[in-house]
Design brief:
The protein is α/β, with parallel strands linked by helices and about 375 residues long. Helix content is about 40%, strand content about 15%. Helix 4 links the parallel strand 2 and strand 3. Bound molecules: pyridoxal-5'-phosphate. Pyridoxal-5'-phosphate binds near residues 65, 93, 94, 198 and 200.
Length: about 375
């Protein structure tokens, strides 16, 4: 490693905390004084604020983004015999929620430019068993929701948005989580809006669905010891809610900061003649981007990753294997070559550091290190 350089992380949460420390510390203190730790007023306020932020009528907090997906499917009474269409190029939780309910994930290949599910390929995957479609707004940019909603509405199929990586992102002027039947968000610490631990949220405009989700997340009960449904324990802590409420006030400026870094990456990369070696993220014409990840598509990806590591530059692969080829989903019977765009992307994508507090020096170093690799 180049010893002159201090290694830095893909996202610097310590720098973020330093910027908001007094506000966060006061929020934690407030909850400690209240001694109200699970659900309660802090969580209710966060639900209202996230719903408003996402342009949806209702917010239902839960323990994680993974649980949000599970709860959405449980509310739709998804089970054995049902099929759910989704993308294989996502975090395992998307497919896992479907499989845990013993329904069948039906993986549809991605668009090679946006990495999101390709709406043109959805129609052929629909049959009488199809109960829902879960598009994932990958890396912080919405899937092609007009096309997806047109197909789903024509067939009466529910759309659950996996918005775990995309809070605040817009599609045709609408915020994610307000377009389909419901939206599922994650507050995993490295998300644009991240807690101090796990946390999640569902958004919806459907009051009956909101009511059912609230019952499902508290063991299926509305009042103590009266269980009307088989639910689960998936509640958000007041400490998380209080911290997230502080951070939500900064979210737009942080996402704007990420967009500025992304623009700067584009300018910096243009200064080098890297040709086809490095493909920058593609912005869909109806979308903006919150850049939860800045993902480039590169030649000789694994060698580049090793080279960057030697230069003190962090990078990550999201995702090294599409879900249809993961061991846990082998029982579905997919084989290599079935979903070629996802398989090609998983061999070529690389996430490079992006966070609002990132200095120009560090960004220059990332781009210079990449350019140096290809000029060897
Ligand atoms: C696309 C996607 N879906 C679901 C999840 C699950 O969220 P959580 O980690 O909060 O359970 C994540 C989290 O990384 C994600 O990126």
């Amino acid at each position: 490693m180049n010893v002159a350089l201090k290694p830095f992380p893909l996202v610097d949460l310590k720098a973020q905390y330093q910027g908001i420390k007094p506000e966060v510390d006061a929020a934690i203190q407030r909850v400690m004084e209240s001694q109200q730790f699970i659900l309660g007023p802090e969580v209710e306020s966060l639900e209202t604020e996230i719903a408003a932020y996402s342009q949806a009528k209702f917010g239902i907090a839960c323990a994680s983004g993974s649980d949000a997906l599970l709860l959405a499917l449980m509310a739709l009474e998804v089970g054995p015999g049902d099929e759910i269409i989704t993308t294989p190029f996502t975090f395992v939780a998307t497919g896992g929620a479907i499989a845990r309910l013993r329904a069948r994930p039906v993986f549809v290949d991605i668009d090679s430019d946006t990495y999101n599910i390709d709406p043109l390929k959805i129609q052929a995957a629909i049959n009488a068993k199809t109960k829902a479609i879960i598009p994932v707004h990958l890396f912080g940019m919405a899937a092609d929701m007009d096309a997806i909603m047109r197909i789903a509405d024509a067939k009466g199929i529910a759309v659950i948005e996996d918005a775990a990586q995309a809070i605040g992102a817009q599609y045709a002027g609408k915020r994610v989580g307000s377009i389909g039947l419901c939206g599922c968000f994650s507050f995993f610490p490295s998300k644009n809006l991240g807690g101090a631990g796990d946390g999640g949220m569902l958004t919806t405009n459907d009051s009956a669905l909101a009511d059912k989700l609230r019952v499902l997340r508290t063991h299926g009960s509305r009042t103590k010891y009266d269980y009307e449904l088989l639910g689960m324990n998936s509640r958000l802590d007041a400490l998380q809610a209080a911290i997230l409420r502080v951070k939500l006030k900064h979210l737009d400026s942080w996402s704007e900061g990420r967009r500025r870094k992304a623009d700067r990456y584009s300018h910096l990369f243009k200064n080098y003649e890297l040709g086809d070696m490095v493909k920058l993220p593609t912005l869909h014409p109806k979308c903006d981007h919150i850049y939860n990840q800045y993902v480039v598509r590169v030649a000789k990806r694994n060698a580049l990753k090793a080279h960057l590591q030697n230069n003190g530059v962090p990078s990550e692969i999201y995702y090294p294997s599409p879900l249809h080829l993961e061991r846990a989903f082998r029982y579905l019977g997919y084989k290599p070559g079935d979903l070629p765009e996802s398989e090609a992307a998983s061999k070529e994508v690389l996430a490079i550091p992006i966070f609002p507090e990132m200095t120009d020096d560090k960004q220059n170093l990332v781009v210079e290190s990449i350019a140096a690799f290809y000029s060897r």
